[in-house]
Every structure is written in C-alpha cells, then in structure tokens.
Specification:
The protein is an alpha/beta fold and 296 residues long. The chain contains ten helices and 14 strands. The protein is 28% helix and 24% strand. Strand 9 and strand 10 form a beta hairpin. The longest helix has 12 residues.
Amino acid sequence: MEILLKLLGTGTPTPSLRRMNSGYLILCGTDLILFDHGFGAHHRLLEQGHHAKDVTHLFLSHLHYDHIGDVPRLVLTRWDQGAGQINELQLYGPPPTRRVIAQMLDKEGVFGPDLVARTEDESSLNVYAARGGHGIRRLPSPHVREVSAGDTIEGTQWRVRVARAEHFTPYLNCCAFRFESQGCSIVYSGDSGPAETVRELATGCDVLIHMCHFLSGTAPSRAFEISCCGHLELASLAAQAGVRTLVLTHITEQFDQPGLRERTISEMAQIFKGVIIFGEDGMSIPIKANTPYRLS
C-alpha cells in the first residue's frame, strides 16, 4: 500500500495567489487524513481530485486562522453532500478545539441559521432526499477529541503520535504530529520554533514537514525566534534528528524572491545532508520507508 503526501497549502496568513494557507493530506489505504485546513486549502484539495466526502480524519495543530479557516467548509460540505450516508468526520486538535467546533455547528452557533434551514425547511429536505438521504436530517456532529503531548491515535493500519510544539506560548496550545504506517513516518511540526520536543518526535523519520518562516538572523525579537523557525535553525534540527527528507513550508514572501530560494537551500545543505524539498502547493511526495524516492 503506497502512502502519498500532498501539500495543499504552503503559505502564511499573508495573502498570496501562489500559496494557500496551511494544509497537508496523507493518503493511506482508504483513509484520507488532513493535517490542518487553512483558508484556500480546500480549493487545493479539489484541485487534487479529492472531495470533502473522501476525507476521513482531520488533525489540527493549533487554532490560528490560517490553519483552521477552511474547516467549516470541509465539515459542512462533507455533511451536506454526504446526505447522511458517510461516517462522521474524526477530528483531533488541542484545547479548546471542542468549543471552537461547537461554536461553529450548534444551533446557536455561527452556522446555526443555515443548519436549521437545511434540516427543517421542506425544499432543503427535498434536496437532501434527492442526494440519497432518508428520514430525519441530523445536524453535523463530527467526533471531536482534544489531544495533547503524549497522546496516540490509532487508525486503520496507521497511528499518529502527538508532541508539544512551540508557538505563541502561552496563548495557544500547539501540537506536532508523527504519522506512522508500514515502517514509514511523516512528522508535521504545525507552526513551531526549533523546539526540542519536535526534534525528539522527528528522530529518524522519513519526512519532516516544518515551517521555515524567515532567514536566520532577520528575526525581529528573541520571542519570534522561539515561536517561529529560521532556515539555519531548521537545518540543525533536521540534522540532529536524523531526518531523511525535509520539506520546507509556511513560506513567507521573504523567500519567494529570485535567488533567495537557492541561497536558502545552499546554506541549509551545509548543515543538513538529507533531501531538502522547497514546498509548493499541489506537490505530491510518495513515501517509501528507508529508500530514496522521486517526486511524482
């Protein structure tokens, strides 16, 4: 069974037509597993030929809007088009994820008026029936589990381990995730500075997807260096962890200038001797344990 990683959004909150907000998709057997779903990531999901109904699991690293902006679109589209015929979405995230999702989907929540109309109005129920729905139309009710460092989530032929990430502490609870299946491992840092907890989680992994937010030496403050990651600090973290492939993401406009991408990779390669991939929206990366691979 091939495991495939797709980059849906490799950008930041800064508006960009080239890079959508954070979003990453892992295809593993019949499971489609999303890690974060910021603004624009859902559009990229459709471009990659996947439907909201296909998504089985969603992991949220933290609750910044550029990581959760398209969550309502995913949840509501999946519910609306699924017409009561698919299982509820399995959704994981740090506290207060449960409250945030409830405030979206409760009858008194943000989308309450819409949901009341779609579950009670006759014409809307006609559409529900036409899509294959039967009987009472129930409100969307994703299975939400709040997670923290040390937790493990077991799936079908895969598992995800959770560690603490370092980003905007103490205002946000932030998670990094390690996906493992059939000897393959993918670590996603979420947004994080060069945290020891992330380095430990990434030890020996096949692929590390990590924010590369600024050119080292240009951070405006020490707090910024702790909460975000410069390119040289990231190279050191990946080298220390023995990562095989490093995917740079959360790319700012600072890097998207002629010559700077090349400079970044060249300088990082002096420290980290594995494969370096400068992430782009729409990129697909097949994962093969302990062996080199080519981009599709």
